[in-house]
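User: Could you write out the 3D structure of this protein bound to zinc ion? I've included everything you need below.
Assistant: Certainly. Input first, then the structure.
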Amino acid sequence: MKTFLFIFIVISSGAAAGIIHGSANLVFVEPSLDQAIGIENQHLFASGEEKDTPEFRAQYDDYRIWQKSGQVFAGGILGISMGSLFGIVFVLSRNSLPGKTDIKKALVLAGVMWLTIYFIPFLKYPANPPTVGDPETVVLRGILYLTFIALSGFGAVGFYKLSQKLKTKKFIAFIGYAAFIGIIFVVMPGNPDKINTPMDLVDHFRTMSAFTVSLYWLSLGIIFGSLWNYYKPHREIPPSFN
Amino acid sequence: MSQSRQINVSKNGVPVIAIVALAILFAAGLFVVGFDQGHIFSLVYGEDAFQDMYIHELTHDMRHAAGFPCH
Ligand SMILES: [Zn+2]
């Protein structure tokens, strides 16, 4: 195992996929964010907290430019973060992942992780544009979301281990995971916040958000798998070099 | 020698140090983008950072876009 090569592959593929994610957000998600924050401003004007002056507009524009400039940067950080988790799971499960090439193995794992730690949690706690979330409940919402993701992720690992023991009846593990996450899905409390923002804006935002996160996982699988295929860090260094 | 190799390398030949380093990267990155409310800057600049929330503003749009709870 070439350790530095392995870490290099993880970080560079995570960063690359994250930058793709952040850049796609600028195109697909930012228009919804602008609309939602525009509604927020209307509320501020209506309540008299702010006045719709050129000064406010200038300050607001600066603030939004700063926030938008963070998309790609934050995409890189989040990309490396999720890529690191992906790298850990890949290196520990590579021998048993289906697929003849490492690109296929990486894509299979990216698909499984997309489903278990992103998409199923997204169905329970969908993304929301600004103005929907109540700042008072943000800690509770964070705990709920993380708990759901952790349960789904560890559940998937647990039932995967079970499937390795079952050998001929592997599908039982799939059914087991489905039942497990189904129960969690029903039992866990929903997002406590009421949505007062127009639903078509919220739905459009959610669709775009899910699209770009999915693009991240797809990019990660392809880039990570290609780099792994090329550099083959799992190959042992000949003993004479050790 | 052989004993230290056994301690540092897990059974599939993956160095434990690599797993630990990646786990730290995972947790730190997730916290900064998904959950930080100015805590990291407050370590350096004190309580004022909670008001300014620099990182929060810079990672704010991604936080919404990636589905993390926000405002
Ligand atoms: Zn927000």
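Confidence is low (pLDDT under 50) at residues 1-7 of chain B.
User: Perfect, thank you.
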